[in-house]
Amino acid sequence: MLKLRRAIVLDAAAPRAESDPGAHSSAAGVPQQELVVELCDGDAAAHRPAIADVTLVGLSQAGDEVIVNVQALDLGLGSGGFDIVHANLTRGLAGDGEPGASVMKLNYTSLQHAVKPVEDERLSLPVDRPVAVLALHGQLAAVVWSFSRNAPGGRLGYVQTEGGALPGGHSRTVRSLREQGLLAGHLTAGTAFGGEGEAITTAGALHHGLVTLGWDAAVCGPGPGIVGSSSPLGHGGMSALDSAHAALALGCPTLLVARMSSGDDRDRHRGISHHTLTVLDLLLEPVTVALPAGMRSPVGADLRAGLGSVFGGAMARPALALDVERPVRITRHDWRRAAVDLPAYAAAGLPATTMGRGLTEDPLFFGAALAGGTALAELASAPSSADAESGLSGAA
Questions:
Q1: In the listed set 36, 67, 95, which residue is the last one of a domain according to the structure?
Q2: Which secondary-structure segment (H or E) carries 54?
Q3: Most buried of 28, 60, 153, 391, CB within 10 angstroms?
């Protein structure tokens, strides 16, 4: 059951909106408002952080009575440590809706709302523009920065999927990347909502971004936070499997950004994470996977030997045991080595933490993401299949 409580807003910040420099979509992105609330049936001294999705529930002001979902904060979840405003009882519950909206998101829940889908009326195949698939939202900034550095002027868009936070306006990383012009756009697909454009499916979002909006490449993955149960299939990282299959089906050169770690305390995530290994094992077709240059293998002794040569002084702590078994089926994928520059990324001022660990505490996590961005830029600069066919025809 929903765990809802009545609360009074004690403090309400101005809402934050995802900036939209030159966006191709008429949607403006979903602003979020940070609040401090006090539960009506709780300890009077207990002030609780909360957020409100302004497009869904409207603006709140100090003194408003609201209904908040308290489940995540009560459970102490690290990626959801706040209450969520479900409704504002003081300012009314009526909404005008979006003009031209024709389908529902979060359908058949109490937060269902109508959106105007971006899916194109005509299907143009093959799309033949590369897609990088993320395991975690924390990889996004490093992938985008590395792509922009290696493909100056390249237009890279972001498709947000399920697997983490669903509201499109919840990511500070996306706002920062848009403000700096490093991302060309932000679409939300499936159950995710609130981007600069709404797609019913991940395939529809990728097609619209790469074909209609003219992105040179796309990065596709979950919003902040991740759902996990420590089981092989019960985690948000499995969204990468569906995203990769959607990209492959559209005829996109597909790159899986490996989740790797030299600092995670959990055995299953050290070296190359079981999340990535499971996706690589289950994929129906081979994909490209990048490793930092100088690293021969993502598993075993080759991984341990490669850490020192790749990262050198960036290793601020002794390397943990990285005894990861090598699944037989990972050898079918296209493993590439790509240059990374950890000091330059650190100086860029972009987000550089994962699960509370900084770049010097877990250089492999960021090195793998930077390698993914470099490899994506290489795929974007490679001749398309249409160009190759044209060249062969001309030679004949």
A1: 95
A2: helix 54-57
A3: 60
Mean pLDDT of 234-238: 86
Percent of residues in the chain assigned helix, strand, coil, to nearest 5: 30, 25, 45
**pTM given for the model:** 0.86
In a domain, 126, yes or no: no
Q: If you average pLDDT over each of 30-34, 103-107, 174-178, 316-320, which comes out highest?
A: 174-178
Give the tokens for residue 390: 């044209």
Q: What is the CATH number of the domain that holds 76?
A: 2.40.50
State the Rg of the chain over Cα.
22
β-strand partners of 87: 67
Quote the domain boundaries for residue 211.
131-381
Looking at residue 302, what is its pLDDT?
64
Residue 254: HSE in the Cβ half-sphere, 13 Å Cα cutoff: 29
From 95, 119, 149, the end of a domain falls on 95
What six digits make up the tokens of 119?
């899916």
Identify whether the C-beta of residue 367 lies closer than 8 Å to the C-beta of residue 110: no
Q: Is there a single domain that holds both residue 248 and residue 367?
A: yes
In a domain, 217, yes or no: yes
pLDDT reported for residue 396:
37
Residues 290-315 have pLDDT tens digits of 999 888 777 666 666 666 666 665 54
Scored b (16 or more CB within 10 A) or e, 117-128 reads bbbeeeeeeebb
Torsion angle defined by CA atoms of residues 318, 337, 150 and 210, in that order, rounded to the nearest 10 degrees: -110
Task: State how many domains the chain has.
Answer: 2
